[in-house]
Amino acid sequence: MGNRMNQSAVISDPVLKMFDADVSQVLGDISAWLGLDGISMQMQPNLVRHKVTVACEHSFTNEFYNTLHQGKAEFHGAPALKQGYVADHVKSEADKRFKALVSVDNMRREVLDGKLWEPSRVVCDEILATSYEDCTSCHNGSVTCGGCSGDGTQICNNCRFTSHPAGYVTCWGCHGTGGGRDAGTQAWYNCSVCNGWKRKRCGTCNGSTKVRCGGCGGNGTVHCGSCGGHAYFTRAHGFRVSLELKAHCQSDTMPEMDAKYFAVWLKEGLPNRASHEAGTIMPYAEIDKPSSRYEGWKDGVYTALLGFNCNVTTGIVKATYAGEQTEFLYGRFGTPAFGFPNFLDHVVDDVLKVVVEKEDMPPSEYLATFSRIPGLAAGMRVSGSSKDGKSKFMDEALGVLRGSVHSELIDIAVDGYLASVGVMERDVSGRVGRDVSLAVAAAWIASWFGGLFEYIHGLNGDYRLLATVGLALGVAGLSARLVRFMTRRRISAETGASAKYGLRGRGKILCFLGGVAFAFAGMLSVTYGG
Fold first, then answer.
1. Which DSSP state fits 231?
2. Which residue, of 44, 82, 167, 301, has the greatest Cβ tally within 10 A?
């Protein structure tokens, strides 16, 4: 590659050497992707060093909160204090943590970690102290039992709703008749259990009409539900801070497109920045010595500012390629950024013309035609027949070509290949489907002679139906898998890459109908042929 460059008054020779290395690298990648021996280009770069002022706005939202816990609760590093000392301690500890968050070192770290323009997130959430409070709903952890109102007993339900005096139940010996008559003499005799009284003392309460309360076990009290029986609470006093980080960039000379690249570099955390301001083409940031402002503690929302300057190099490069004048954009951020015109469209367009002249080209011939463009041929092969594969390849291709070839040409080439693969898939799957149908027919004959259908026919009731349906679904599923496997195998042999063919609606229906025909034809042959 031949380069001829005009040096700007503010750009030194080492800068031009680095620019030349960046251009050589990207043109080398493009050349290899397109299958070119090289790209000879004469260039006259007009590189400009832009100063960008960055103001990072750290919006902190702080809040105090407390949570109540039954009994004793401990939190690492949080002391247990009397209630009168809690407020001052929490305020003091929160102030320490907030000062650390708004420190220059922390705010600089947030920027370098690539946290700019992210949604608001919690950066501090800590329990700073605990205190104890007595439960006002109970006495020593116990409350009066609601089931017995503290009496410890309840009315006996076994004898409660009888017509007998309190504490008695109907005699179980005579069922309340008091006795009976002799079958022979008709003489009356009293019940031997109740002696004719028709009732007996209640065995549950022993006639007292009271039983032990089931809720409290007779104690008259139960554990307090509020404090869990502990008689006190632990109140945890916490402090939480959320951060939202934004940045405002200002430059009097940087073009709008370069400003977008700069914002991306800033969001990534200023990678590959230079350690010195002068003598380099690399971007420089004064992030190690920023200016900041902190005006003291404030409740609610507080904004801390972190300001620093950056220097980045961009430029418009006039170039001559194949005798024609053109120009492209260049910018040096974390990585080199280029914006080429479509000066290499003819490389892809020449091959597309050959493809257009030949209709119904099979995939292998299509790939062979594009073999002179290695990157495109490889991408077609990998994308297969998948739209997702195409989308991924297009992103990678455009990242390499950087505008030197119009994206529409790449899209047309890949769509043509996918269409070619699609035609072959339909043709191959149709022929494979016929082969599988013959195999299923042979399997049907073997099953008939082997007695499979006769065996199923001999099953009883629901088992026969289940076996028939299972056989139909099994044959359908196996047929679909065979068609898919054999089609993929032939497509892979044609293209030299793994195929992603899958049965579509019509194919699935035909396989299902084939399975149904297999099973029910077999059953009908046994029913009417036997």
1. S
2. 167
Query: Which neighbouring-strand residues pair with 59?
Result: 244, 303
Query: Which single residue is written with the structure tokens 């251009």?
Result: 23
- Does 414 map to a domain? yes
For the chain, what is the domain count?
1
Question: H-helix or E-strand containing 15?
Answer: helix 13-34
Judge whether 423 and 361 are in contact, CB under 8 Å: no
User: Is residue 382 helix, strand or coil?
Assistant: helix
Query: DSSP character for 123?
Result: E
CA distance 400 to 397: 5
Contact between 330 and 340 (Cβ < 8 Å): no
Residue 375 counted as domain residue? yes
Token pair of 308 as six digits: 């620093």
DSSP three-state, residue 29: helix
Q: Is residue 485 part of a domain?
A: yes
DSSP for 385-450 reads: T-HHHHHHHHHHHHHHHTTSS-HHHHHHHHHHHHHHHHHHHHHHHHHHHHHHHHHHHHHHHHHHHH
Query: What tokens were used for 111?
Result: 């920027």
pLDDT tens string, the chain, 530 residues long: the values are 343 333 333 445 677 888 888 999 999 999 999 999 989 889 898 889 999 999 999 999 999 999 999 999 999 999 999 989 999 999 999 989 998 998 899 999 999 999 999 999 999 999 999 999 999 999 889 999 988 888 889 999 888 888 888 889 989 888 888 888 877 788 888 888 888 899 999 988 998 999 999 888 888 999 998 999 999 999 999 999 999 999 999 999 998 889 999 999 999 999 999 888 777 788 999 898 887 766 655 667 788 889 999 999 999 999 999 888 999 999 999 889 999 999 999 999 999 998 888 877 888 899 999 999 999 998 888 776 556 678 888 999 999 999 999 999 999 999 888 888 888 888 888 899 899 999 999 998 998 888 888 888 888 878 888 988 999 999 999 999 999 899 888 888 888 777 777 888 888 888 899 889 998 888 888 877 65
For residue 350, is it within any domain? yes
Domain containing 441 equals 344-530
